[in-house]
Structures are given as C-alpha cells and as structure tokens.
Amino acid sequence: MPRKAALAAWIGSALEYYDFFIYGTAAALVFNKVFFPASSPATGTLLALATFGVGYLARPVGAFVLGHVGDRLGRKKVLVFTLLLMGATTFLVGCLPTYASIGVLAPILLVVLRLLQGLSAAGEQAGANSMSMEHAPPHRRGYYTSFTLSGTQAGQILATAVFLPIAALPQEQLLTWGWRIPFWCSAVVVVVGFVIRRKIDETPVFEQNRAEVAKLPVAVLFRTHWKDVLRVVAAATIASVSTIFTVYALSYAVNTVGLERGPILWVGVLANVAALLAIPVLAGLSDRIGRKPVFVAGCLACAVLIFPYLWSISGGSYPLIFALGILLFGVAYSAVNGVWPSFYGEMFSAKVRLSGMAIGTQIGFAIAGFAPSVVAAIGSGKDDWLGVAVFTAAVCLLSATAALTARETHDVPTEDLGAAHVRRVKEPASATRGG
C-alpha cells in the first residue's frame, strides 16, 4: 500500500504540475508580447511575470477551503477536485483571444484563469503528501512522501520538454498558435489523472479518525499548532529558488541577455532530471540522519550557488550555465524538495495535517510566487544580477532559520506526530534505507 500511494501521488503531481508550469514558461517567453504588447518590453515582461505570481495569491484562499475539505471529507476528494479544476482552467488559457483581438479583456481573463489554477494547486501537494505520508512505514516516511515532489519535477520536465519544439518555431507562428498547444494538451492530462485518482483508497489514518473529525479543522489548527503554521510559512519561502530559477532566470537569459531559448530550456530539463534522481536519495538520507540537517544544508547550498549561476547567465557561458543550473536546482534545491513533504507534515496531527500543510505552504509559496516580479523590479538590466542573487540568498537564510526552530521528527512514531509529548523510536540502520 505505501508503494501504491506513493505512485499515485507521483503520477498525479506530475500531471497536475505539468499544467501549472507550462504557464510559467509561457509567461517568461511569450505572454509579454501576446497579452501586453502595448507596454514597453521591460514593462511587458514585468506584467507577464506578475500574472504568474497572481496564481499564488489564490493559494492561501484555496488552502483554507481545500484544507477544510481534506480534513473533514477525506484526502481523495481533494485530489480528484484539484486535478479537474487545474486541467479545465489550463485548457481554457490555450483558448484565450489575445490583446490584439479583444483588448484589455484578454489579460483580465488570463488573470482569472490563473487565479483558478492557484486554487487548484493549493490543495494538490498537501493532499498528495498527506496521502503518501499516512500510508508510509514510520521509519521511511521521508522516502515515500518525497515521491510527491519527484512527480512535481517530472511535471516540470514534461512542461519544459513540450515547449522545446514550440520555442523553436518562427516568432510569428509562436505568438499566434504555437504557444497554445501545450495548454490544449491538458485535456489528455485530465483524462489520465482522473482515471488514476478515482482508484486511490482513502488513507487508514483518516478512516480510523473519521468519527472524531473536527467540525472546523482550521480552528483546531490555529489553537493547537499556530507556531508550526508560522514556521512552515517562513520555511516554505525557499520555493523562491524554484520560481526564480524556472521563471525569472529564463526570462533574464532570453529577454535581457539575449541567449537562445532552446539551450536555456534544456537547462531546466536536465536540472529536473537530476532532481528526479536526487530527491528520493536525499529524502531517504533524512530518514537516517534527520529532516533538519538535510533541509538546512539544501537552503545554505542554494544561497551560495545562486550567485555563480546568475553570473554565468550574464556572461553567456553555456557550459557554466548548464553545470551550475544542474548543481543548484537538480542537487541543492532537491535537498529541500525531498525533505519538506515529510518535515512539514510531521509537525501536525492527522486531524489537521492537510489544513496545516496547505495553509502554511501556500502562504509561503504565495510569497515565493511573486519573487520573479520582485527581482525583475530590482533590476531589469544585464548587469543587475547581483541584487537578484542577494535577495534570493536572504530568502534561503530565512528558510534555514525557520527550519532550525522546529523539532526533529524523523524518529517519532506516526501516531505521536503533532503531540506535545512524543516517544522516539530508533530503527535498525538496515530498515531505514530508502529504496
């Protein structure tokens, strides 16, 4: 059952985040010209990146709503709903008329659909993480829960890979019909994902506590776990590394430095391939040595590596861009990505776990979602990368500090998670190896 739940979480997250990240790629490459052509190039890019961030505004709202549903009615209902909503809104983005056709109504509709995408994403990871974690053996929670984030990386690979041939189209074709194709492909995503998620069983932990479900889980959450919610919010801002890498750095490389779209997109593909391998390994390591050491090390490594990565883009050195991009996002950030699903989830009891994870992460992710817009405002010139790197490093240090204030929970039995007093169980080394 742990493997089945982990596989379901992996596949569902891959399909869901394919939809979410093709928007980010389109925002970086074409939306400034399609939906904001009346603005200057720099302003158009800033506005396009802001529409990417708008999706994160809806995430805290969706977290409260879908967290309540997940803790009251079950994890499965949330997972099916989020998939259908994400697929429908993404397909409709591909159908939108452009600014040239209907004027200002075009970007308004774009923002509305992006808000609905954000609502969907708010419940996706918290639901999938809760499901895989509550099915996992106590001494391997890190390993099994990390498959949700491996699925997210797979979705990013698929989203970027779909855009590789699209980005190679002549400019006129790219801006008229080419950019729409990845969004229309979401129809397939919806069908496949719906079939898979309908077959998922509800978690044993939720079924066992169904009779004791709180009428208002959010009220219980803020009465008993408000410090953990704040801790997760601060730690989750580390997602700024992801949004800056996948959206800002892509826009900076192509629109500011003038590098070719194709090679820069390949950096994202290869970094995510490396992440697919690194995430379960580093999550398995956290089952042995603890969540905090792995998470904090990842934060600090990201704070250091963002400097040479952005510098390499400013210099146009493709070998350095590839090497540092893979090291930053494929390895260092994977230490964070592999651990946070179990690290955050273990802070909460089963009765409020989905609400706690959803609200904490989505507020943090909302802040991270606007990171590309913030750093674009910090500097829009080729030589302004240093300020962007300093901002990113500061966020990494904030996340590391928040993590250091948390309890170590990798050796706490599942039934004791979120309790004021916990037992600690030492598993045999052979039993704690991921694989």
Automatic annotation (TrEMBL):
It is a multi-pass membrane protein. Keywords: Cell membrane, Membrane, Symport, Transmembrane, Transmembrane helix, Transport. This is Putative proline/betaine transporter. PROSITE patterns: MFS (PS50850), SUGAR_TRANSPORT_1 (PS00216). It comes from the Bacteria. The keyword Transmembrane helix applies. Its main location: membrane. The chain crosses the membrane at residues 43-66, 78-99, 105-122, 143-167, 179-196, 229-251, 263-282, 294-311, 317-336, 357-379, 385-404. GO terms for cellular component: plasma membrane. Belongs to the major facilitator superfamily. Metabolite:H+ Symporter (MHS) family (TC 2.A.1.6) family. The lineage of its organism: Bacteria, Bacillati, Actinomycetota, Actinomycetes, Pseudonocardiales. One of its GO terms (molecular function) is symporter activity.
